[in-house]
Automatic annotation (TrEMBL):
Annotated EC: 1.1.1.-
InterPro entries: NAD(P)-bd_dom_sf, Sc_DH/Rdtase_CS, SDR_fam
Protein's recorded name: SDR family NAD(P)-dependent oxidoreductase
Keyword tRNA-binding among UniProt keywords: no
Top-rank taxon: Bacteria
Record carries keyword Oxidoreductase: yes
A molecular function (GO) term: oxidoreductase activity
Record PROSITE patterns: ADH_SHORT (PS00061)
Pfam annotation, one family: adh_short_C2
Keyword annotations of the record: Oxidoreductase
Similarity comment: Belongs to the short-chain dehydrogenases/reductases (SDR) family.
PANTHER family: SHORT-CHAIN DEHYDROGENASE_REDUCTASE FAMILY PROTEIN, SHORT-CHAIN DEHYDROGENASES/REDUCTASES FAMILY MEMBER
Length: 265
């Protein structure tokens, strides 16, 4: 497509699926070599990266493990010599079971705070906040050691700003990612390492699979989406590309929303 990331190396957690996969492919199309860290196999992503003419490797990574996050960055350095860009896309909607958009639409109160178990809350925070922090920390340490600057992109959500009944763990976790992004952006502002976040609206990925066939869930989602459609993972990847590239060189600590018109009012 272009050469916005020519010669760069990008580490992408959650790159086996959805937004992370689309971002890996787009980055490869723009000239980057790709390192995917995911619990799930990323063979399909790597095939697409290679089809785009770039090299890719994967390392099975659980981002809730600090050692795994460090090993992922070490693997990138060992294979490609450096890390320029990191995307923390690994995330979960709920501790288990269907995504919260579906349970909320069904009018269920089981996921309201008064009814949830501490472990359920904790699990989502472990993956979505601690996992992102550990990913960012490993990336930032490497970028600082290189002294070359870099761009770290955290995948938050529009749920960082919108309180959704029945989705407290997810909303709190994404608000946490937003604040983590602001604090890290500030802490690293003078180093050349930029930290930004992307807050997608409802996006057609496995995370919300089947939503279009679930009338109440889809209508609820569209009621807060002025464009009245789901986003495509490629549209989220395009925002990541902007933040990864030098086109956003004067931007850090920010949250951008490819979200179909949410937050216009
Ligand atoms: N799809 C949406 O509507 C939407 C909207 C806003 C934000 N998001 C966020 O986008 C990010 C990507 O989600 P997606 O929609 O592509 O979902 P997805 O389920 O398609 O992809 C998530 C990936 O993360 C991986 N993963 C989960 N836990 C992990 C862990 N502990 N360690 C390593 N990998 C792990 C999964 O294996 C999967 O490959 C998530 O952070 C999600 O919260 C999604």
């Amino acid at each position: 497509m272009g050469n916005a990331l020519e010669g760069k190396v990008a580490v992408i957690t959650g790159g086996a699926s959805g937004i992370g996969q689309a971002t890996a492919v787009r980055f490869a199309e723009e000239g980057a070599d790709i390192v995917v860290g995911d619990l799930a196999p990323a063979d399909e992503t790597l095939r697409m990266v290679e089809k785009a003419g770039r090299r890719g490797i994967q390392l099975r990574t659980d981002t809730t493990s600090s050692d795994d996050c460090d090993a992922l960055v070490a693997a990138a350095v060992s294979e490609f010599g450096k890390v320029d860009v990191g995307v923390a896309s690994a995330g979960i909607a709920t501790a288990a079971g269907p995504s919260n958009v579906q349970t909320r639409a069904a009018g269920e109160r089981a996921t309201h705070v008064v009814n949830i178990a501490t472990e359920t809350f904790q699990r989502v925070l472990d993956v979505n906040v601690v996992g992102v922090m550990q990913t960012d920390r490993a990336l930032a340490r490497q970028m600082l050691e290189q002294g070359t600057g870099g761009s770290i992109i955290n995948i938050a959500s529009s749920a960082a700003r919108i309180p959704l009944a029945g989705a407290a763990p997810y909303c709190v976790s994404k608000a946490g990612v937003w604040m983590l992004t602001k604090v890290m952006g500030l802490e690293l502002a003078e180093t050349g390492v930029r930290v930004n976040a992307v807050g997608p609206g409802y996006t057609a990925t496995p995370m919300i699979a089947g939503i279009e066939d679930n009338r109440p869930a889809y209508e609820m989602a569209m009621s807060i989406t002025p464009m009245n459609r789901l986003g495509r993972p490629e549209e989220i990847a395009a925002t990541c590309l902007f933040l990864a590239s030098d086109e956003s060189s004067f931007m850090t600590g920010q949250l951008l929303h490819p979200a179909g018109g949410q937050f216009t009012g």
